[in-house]
Amino acid sequence: MHYKGYEAVIEFDEHANIFNGEVVNLRDVITFQGSSAAQLKQAFAESIKDYQAFCAERGEQPEKPYSGQFVVRTEPILHKAISSAARRAGVSLNKWVVTTLERSIR
């Protein structure tokens, strides 16, 4: 489920007969729930708006969904090996890593 760049995963609690959602593309924790798809969508939107308002009250910028940048630390031997693989493929190290990660999640 998506709303204004935020992504949530939904689970169904069969004992409580309710859907629980959690925003997954932030470090902050934002949860919501609803008993129907319409309620779930509304609760998701309201939770994001509440989160943004809470941040504004505190004078903080709300965390944005992931930027697309992260640091990977590895052993030098692995760094050398993937750099060589990228060079052999004729692409940048960044492009090689992105392509490899994309393949791994499909």
From TrEMBL:
GO biological process entries: regulation of DNA-templated transcription
Residues passing through the membrane, by range: none
Pfam families xrefs: HicB (PF05534)
Domain of life: Bacteria
SUPFAM superfamilies: Ribbon-helix-helix, TTHA1013/TTHA0281-like
Gene3D superfamilies, sorted: Met repressor-like (1.10.1220.10)
Name recorded for this polypeptide: Antitoxin HicB
